[in-house]
Amino acid sequence: MLIKKPSDIKPSEITDKDVYMNRRKFMQAAGSLALAGVTSPLLAKPSTQGGSGQKLANVIKTDYKVDRPLSDYKDVTTYNNFYEFGTDKKSPAKTAGQMKTKPWQVTIDGEVEKPGTYNLEDLMKPHPLEERIYRFRCVEAWSMVVPWVGFSLGDLLKRFNPTSKAKYVEFTTLFDPKQMPGQRRTVLQWPYQEGLRIDEAMHPLTMMVVGLYGEVLPNQNGAPLRLIVPWKYGFKSIKSIVRIRLTEKQPQTSWNISAPREYGFYSNVNPTVDHPRWSQKKERVLGASFFAPKKPTLMFNGYADEVAGLYKGMNLRKFY
Length: 320
Hints:
320 residues; alpha+beta; Sulfite Oxidase, Chain A, domain 2; 5-stranded mixed sheet; globular; disordered N terminus
């Protein structure tokens, strides 16, 4: 994996609460202007150099909280791992705007009683949108805290009646080299694929995401539909999903195919298991100065109380 440590990241580690709240008020005002017939530049021309600028309605606040302030909005939307749009962290925000996310269809098949291909809007309709503030930990040792907006993956899967043979869930990203120029390179085997065990997929923390900070998910962050599994490293949270397949056998995953010694199927955040090329014992908060002290990495990214039971009796060094 290409690792970059940019020195131009802002020294501020977090967004001040008042700044975040003022921004939300601005978005509400912009929405009112649009209804009144006044065009807001933020709403009229969503920028790929940041967020989508499109506010989500009727988002329910939840009790999913983190004992750390939110990461900076601009950092989260301009410093991304999305190899379909480039291998450095800045390229996705510059190049992902060309991808069309409407209309968008998702196929759900495999070991389910009700397979089919569905419009994203139809998949979302029965599920109230929730804002969940989660830790997010990248394998390169940087971390952030993001208010993701979405709904439970488990609730979605239940609608399609998984069979008794459904032991795993496989996810596939859109494959379209015309829209995703990074797919013209052989840095990974395309399309990008990821997978979870069925009990991981059904866990209440596992989330299908359609937005962040109250806005429609920006392309560079995985629009229009991505996965978030907050106790696993970020590359498990596959972006721009077009297929969800339930399987009896463990599916192959892109990074495990590319570098099996470095990236296992489980990829749980574990400070005691180092990446072969660097330590995972500490993390740097996104937006902090490169010279700022790192924070200790928490087992399961701080979600041990909720998910440790999923791996009872497993050797987490062997099943990394």
